[in-house]
Write a structure and sequence with these properties.
The chain has 131 residues and is mainly alpha-helical. The chain is 44% helix and 3% strand. It is globular, with a radius of gyration of 16 Å. The N terminus is likely disordered.
Amino acid sequence: MAEFDLPPSMRPTATESTSWSGGTESLASSSAEDLTEILWRRGDLSHLLRPHGQHRAYGFIHRFTETRPHDMGPVVINCDRRMGKSFLLVALAIERCLRLPRQVVRYGSPTFVQTDEIVQPLIRQILDSCP
């Protein structure tokens, strides 16, 4: 599993335990599958991101929202082509839906076809990783 930088409020503690995987166990002794399940249950999909560009942008967005909880943005990310912007934004949208009940997330693109060709496969790809 790749290393990643979580916002302080989302970082697991060494003594944190899980009870949904057939018993209570500490995170330190958890398998990769158990950790994936824990992160999904928390609504944390950062483990799916690439370690450099995507993860840096993810950290920036979370730090921005933690320090300005009532600020609706906009958040502008200046990045290169092929950085994985669409994947990052879809992951953030799914995280929001996991963390907050009854969310409606809108995704815009110049055409419906682009949304269908780009976003739908990414949603499937991310949800396929759900334990």
